[in-house]
Design goal:
Number of domains: 1
CATH topology: Metallo-beta-lactamase, Chain A
Structural class: alpha/beta
CATH architecture: 4-Layer Sandwich
Number of helices: 11
Radius of gyration: 17 Å
CATH class: Alpha Beta
Helix content: 25-40%
CATH superfamily: Ribonuclease Z/Hydroxyacylglutathione hydrolase-like
Length: about 270
C-alpha cells in the first residue's frame, strides 16, 4: 500500500513544549519502502500508537537541524545499526554541523547505518528503488525540501520559502506537503515580513499559495502548526489556500492517513 500517516502535525518551540498537538513527523510507505520524514519529539510513542513497527522502517529523511524535526532521530536509528540497506538522507548540516549547529545525528549512528547521504541543494540519490532530490529551502538554518519519486511523487516542502525556479521542481507531484507556519494576514504579519527581510524565514499561508500556484500538485496538505496557526483555525487556512490556488487542500490532523493511490483521506 502506498500511503502517508501524519504521526504529528505541531511545530515551533512553544508548540513543541506545550504539546497541544503532537509534534510533526510523517510516516510514508511508497513502493514497499517505509520511511520517516523529520522525526520530532514523541515520534517513538506516536509510531506505537499508530501500530507501526519501528523495526520495519527502511529509512529516514531529515530536512534541517531544529529540535522539532530531529529529536527522536538517534533513538530510531538505533534500530538501523548494522542492518543492511537501511538509509538516512539528511541535509548535510544535520550530519556534519557548522559554526552554529552541532550534528544532530551522532557520528556513532551515522557510522553504523548502512547508507548515509548528506544532501545539499539539487543533490539526488537513488536508494531502495526511490529517487530522492534535495531542493533549497530558504529558512533561518540550513534546510532542504525533498522530492521523493517512485510510482508516486511526494514533495515535502519543509519550513522555508522558495524562488519560482525552485517551485517548478515540485511540479507533477501527486501530493505536496507544506509546513505552513504563519496564518493568512496574521496580526504579526508586519513583524513576519521584517523578519523575512532579515533572513528569519518561515512559510506563511501567502507563501504556500504562491508555491502551489506554480507547482500545481494533484493534492496539497498543510501541517506543522504553531500555536498561532492553531488559533487561526487550520481548516479555515486550508480553505483560504484552496480558494486562492484552485488546488484541493487538506489540513492534516494527528494520525491522519492519506491513501496515495486514491489521493484521499482514509478513515
Amino acid at each position: 500500500m502506498n500511503r502517508i500517516i501524519f504521526l504529528g502535525t505541531g511545530a515551533g518551540d512553544e508548540g513543541m513544549l506545550l504539546q497541544l498537538i503532537r509534534t510533526s513527523c510523517i510516516y510514508c510507505e511508497l513502493d514497499g519502502v517505509k520511511f520517516l520524514i523529520d522525526p520530532g519529539p514523541g515520534t517513538l510513542v506516536n509510531l506505537k500508537e499508530n501500530n507501526i513497527n519501528i523495526f520495519d522502517l527502511n529509512g529516514m529523511l531529515i530536512s534541517h537541524p531544529h529540535p522539532d524535526h530531529y529529536t527522536d532521530a538517534n533513538a530510531i536509528l538505533t534500530t538501523f545499526i548494522n542492518e543492511t540497506g537501511k538509509f538516512l538522507v539528511a541535509e548535510e548540516t544535520c550530519l556534519k554541523g557548522n559554526q552554529d549547529f552541532f550534528p544532530c545525528v551522532s557520528k556513532f549512528h551515522q557510522a553504523h547505518t548502512s547508507k548515509v547521504f548528506p544532501m545539499k541543494a539539487d543533490d539526488s540519490v537513488e536508494v531502495s528503488g526511490l529517487k530522492i532530490t534535495a531542493i533549497e529551502s530558504k529558512h533561518y538554518s540550513p534546510c532542504t525540501a525533498f522530492v521523493i519519486e517512485g510510482t508516486k511523487k511526494i514533495s515535502y516542502v519543509a519550513d522555508g520559502i522558495y524562488t519560482e525556479e525552485d517551485c517548478k521542481k515540485f511540479e507533477n507531484s501527486d501530493i505536496m506537503i507544506l509546513n505552513t507556519y504563519i496564518p493568512f494576514e496574521s496580526e504579526g504579519a508586519a513583524e513576519y515580513y521584517f523578519m523575512k527581510k532579515h533572513g528569519v524565514l518561515h512559510m506563511s499561508v501567502e507563501d504556500a499559495i504562491e508555491i502551489i500556484k506554480v507547482a500545481k500538485p494533484k493534492l496539497a496538505v498543510i501541517q506543522h502548526y504553531n500555536t498561532k496557526f492553531l488559533a487561526a483555525g487550520t481548516e479555515k487556512q486550508a480553505e483560504i489556500i484552496e480558494k486562492a490556488s484552485g488546488i484541493k487542500i487538506v489540513a492534516a490532523k494527528d494520525s491522519m492517513k492519506i491513501n496515495l493511490e486514491k489521493l484521499r483521506v482514509e478513515k
